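Hallway conversation turned thread

IA: we were arguing at lunch whether anyone had actually written out tRNA (5-methylaminomethyl-2-thiouridine)(34)-methyltransferase MnmD end to end. Turns out nobody had. So, for the record, here is the sequence (224 residues) and right after it the structure tokens. Reply here if something looks off.
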Amino acid sequence: MEREIRITNDGSKTLFINELNENYHSHHGALQEAEHVFIKNGLNLINDYEINILELGFGTGLNVLVTINEYLKTDKNHTINYFTLEKYPINESEIENLAYFDHFDNPELKNIYQKIHQTDWETSVEIVKGFSLKKIQCDFFDLKNIDLPKINLVYYDCFGARVQPDLWEKPLFEMVSDKMSVNGLLTTYSSKGSVRRVLKELNFQVEKKQGPPGKREMINAIKL
């Protein structure tokens, strides 16, 4: 699929897929969306010593970077194992031009960003002490065949239902739920009524939260 780089309203960049007329991130701000949905309403709500994160999908690597940035701010008395799925990895030119590290104060983030993208797929790599990353190149519906530890935090960051409705229906959510621990948290930018209903059917406690800039609401869901 043909992609082009666009600048979002907070100055950070995203990729735009012409064929789908779809951005990888909100045009209101790629970075602020990631931090609001997946850090403020995701990572910062988990208190477990070992945090196993599952992300659908890896995309530009921005969610991994904001997660590491937040981890580095802590006393690091916990560990994070981050598993991320992606069917269509972006290319080296796109990685270089997105340059998300420019938006952080921590100078370490440039090398970390490069390491995130340079690590081999299908291999668990310690990016910084206490934080390991495993990138898995596959279709999301292959999730049921992937061996994972019990996941206590899910970043559900698929393309929108307008362009990929099957990613927001019960079969995929059921696969995700099967990989999660009891009391695990699923967080997503979506607030669709159909998504809330599916999650409730799968025995999640669903809460609507204030959305990131440009979006009124988002969803947090706790597996019961």
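OS: looked through it. DSSP finds six helices and eleven strands in the chain.
IA: good, adding that to the notes. The radius of gyration is 16 Å.
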